[in-house]
Amino acid sequence: MTLSKHDQAQELSARAELVRREGDRLAARDLFSQAAAFEGIALREIPSEKRRTRGILAVSYAALLFKAAEYEQAEAEICALLASGLEVHHREQLRELLQVTWEEQQLARESMQYSGDEILVALRGGEIGVGTAPADVAVHFMNAFNLLAFRAAELDAGLELRRKGPPSHEIQSLLQARATQPAAGSYRFSIRFVEPAQGALFPEALSFRAPSPKRISAIVVQVLRALESDSPAELEQAVPRADYRLALIRLARNVMPSGSALTEVEVRTAFDSPGDAVFLRLDQRRKASEAIKALRPPSEEPESEQGIVVGILRGLSLDNTWLQIRPEDGPLQQIRTNPSELDDVIGPMVNRKVEARVHYSRKHQKMGRGTAQLIDIELLED
Predict the structure, then answer these.
(1) How far is CA 60 from CA 45, 114, 117, in A?
(2) 262 near 137, Cβ under 8 Å?
(3) In 22-134, alpha helices (H)
(4) In the chain, which stretches have pLDDT less than 70?
């Protein structure tokens, strides 16, 4: 039986998705372009009175043009379709496609493009609504996943562990992470990876391997999955380098629920099925803390007493190795930090409620100078 134009478009689109998953972006775009041509013919064959069918095919046609990276044609066709009397929800979908088409055109002018790889995140429970979330919660999680992604990028590039400051200009020029607009259904967003449209012009001049968005998103999800299952072996397999393993676990703990404001964080890559998602809940924070404790070097002062300081992180100077916490009752406490502390782990905690685990030198206590030394610090629910 001869396939209809729409069926041929769907078959080509399915093949294009498989090819894209294998990493051949140009071949995938060619197949998407062929699929769009068939879908366009199918759309033109549908009578105008069949508004629902026309709407479905119109959205499919526009999406295929977008996936084929034929942005100028996609823009023109979407604008024409928006004026053709489609149903409201189909026009809304087309407007969203038009918006991302304009974004791609802007990226193209900057010689950048979306890689097709992304980290999908959903926040649920507590104060999270359907498509809404408290502003501070939303900003925290978008920023925390962005920081986690850049650390994974530096690991993938084979760089030495960065102790302070932002990622290098070279890394940022090769890779960007952009948060997409939240979608309805819990509170969903994604970190989409942007990269140079033609790759590095002189890859041999780079002092490191260019990071791969696909590998980066896989590293992030593998770390979270290993913490979810409480598997040190999986953690070591995902991140063989101990220094990066500790850094990534500490950053991963910052994307885990810490109280009742939200109860679950779902994470997966763009190519994972919903069944492959990682689900982070409050008990995973304990597992992350235990993993951090296991990777920490033993205290240099074995004759010490440990304590907990809970309060608002009010001051921070990692260059000068100190931070300040104001407890709910009591004076501001200054705590010494290790020179190896990472500012992208602690920096986002400023003006937030934290719990710091510290140790006090017994010798210092006897001399009346019981200065606390930081062992670990984590966010608590405000």
Answers:
(1) 15, 20, 21
(2) yes
(3) 25-44, 51-67, 71-82, 88-109
(4) 1-3, 179-185, 198-206, 297-304, 361-370, 382
For residue 195, give the 3-state DSSP assignment: strand
User: For helices 71-82 and 51-67, what crossing angle results, to 10°?
Assistant: 160
Q: What's the pLDDT at 374?
A: 92
Give the separation between CA 370 and CA 353, rounded to whole angstroms.
23
Distance between CA atoms of residues 251 and 169, nearest Å: 21
Which token pair is 238? 């995902």
3-state secondary structure of 373: strand
Nearest to 144 by CA among 259, 254, 245: 254
Q: What pLDDT does 206 receive?
A: 62
Compute the CA torsion angle 127, 132, 133, 135 (nearest 10 deg). Answer: -140
Question: Angle CA(136)–CA(137)–CA(143) in degrees, nearest 5?
Answer: 90
Residue 174 Cα distances to 157, 161, 196, 213, 248, angstroms: 11, 18, 6, 10, 21
pLDDT at 110: 72
Which letter, b or e, does each residue of 333-367 get, where b requires 16 or more Cβ atoms within 10 Å of its Cβ?
A: bebebeeebbebbbebbeeebbbbbbbbbeeeeee
DSSP string, 290-355: HHHHHHSPPPS-SSEEEEEEEEEEEEEEGGGTEEEEEESSS--EEEE--TT--HHHHGGGTTSEEE
**Token digits of residue 59:** 């959205």
| CA 115 – CA 271 distance, rounded (Å) | 13
Residue of 113, 157, 119 lying closest to 25 (CA atoms):
113
Of 267, 284, 285, nearest in space to 276 by CA: 267
Closest CA to 190 of 250, 149, 249: 149
Q: With pLDDT > 90 as the criterion, what percentage of the chain qualifies? A: 43
Report the number of secondary-structure helices (H) and strands (E) in the chain.
13, 11
CB of 164 within 8 A of CB of 319? yes
pLDDT computed for residue 241 by the predictor: 94
Q: Are 346 and 323 in contact (CB under 8 A)?
A: yes
* Residue-wise pLDDT tens digits, 20-42: 878 787 898 999 999 999 999 99
In three-state secondary structure terms, 243 is: helix
- Its pTM stands at 0.74
